[in-house]
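Task 17 of the worksheet. Students: predict the tertiary structure of the chain below and write it out as structure tokens. Keep your answer in the requested format; marks are given for formatting as well as content.
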Amino acid sequence: MIIAEKGSTNTDTLVIVFLNQSNHPEKFREKLCRAYGFDSYHKIFVYDRSTCMTLLGIPPERKDFNEVRAEIESLVKRFAPKRLITTGSSAGSFPALLFGHLLKADVAVAIAPFTNLDPDALSDQELMVRRQMKRVQRLIDENPEAPTKYMNLRSVLDQYNGKTKYLIHVSRGFQSDYQHAINLEGLPGVRIHEHLYNDHSLDTYLADTHQLKKCHSANYRVPNRLQHKANILRYLAERRFRNLLMRLPIQSIFAR
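Model answer:
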């Protein structure tokens, strides 16, 4: 599913949001726009529930990757933005980085990233993630039209497009995501932001601590430990965990 929405008349920014499987655009796009601070921007929502991250198209409407790419490129040309952002979390992060590269976006943002779809490439992937990647690899192996050259984003982004800033946001305490992040370490244009957080749900944490819009800026800096402590306290309070907060040793909410 690909949905385009026109923003306010005075905006020159287009955001392409690649949604993960749990964020169906018809249910979540308004909430996501508020959380990301993208209400006034032109927007394209790309939703692939197949878990193949657009490499096999977006079934059943778009049969292969080239169809997806052609439609997105056509929409970008129609909006003709001066500033282009691609963004995605979890399974949406892979196409966010890939299309950020292909479209020469100004900024490509990946939260809780996937950067290599080879199930055996990253040693510390959790069992559930490894099973998912094995399924993706099997489906891609069965499709002779699949663009296998994009399976590992390190080799893709290594051919720098000369423009895009790749902002990788990762939970320092979640090893599977961390392995995917450091897979891109040292590449041109790549900045890895390590957050003092321990879970894959980094986008939720960033939204609840009012950092989600800020982390799409090339000037973003990860909060220091003292700021992070304040964010965590607010995060827990806003989720009505005040009683838990009174009993929880403060050091236990820090990534190690």
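Marker's comment: The two ends are 39 Å apart (CA to CA). The first strand starts at residue 2 and ends at 5.
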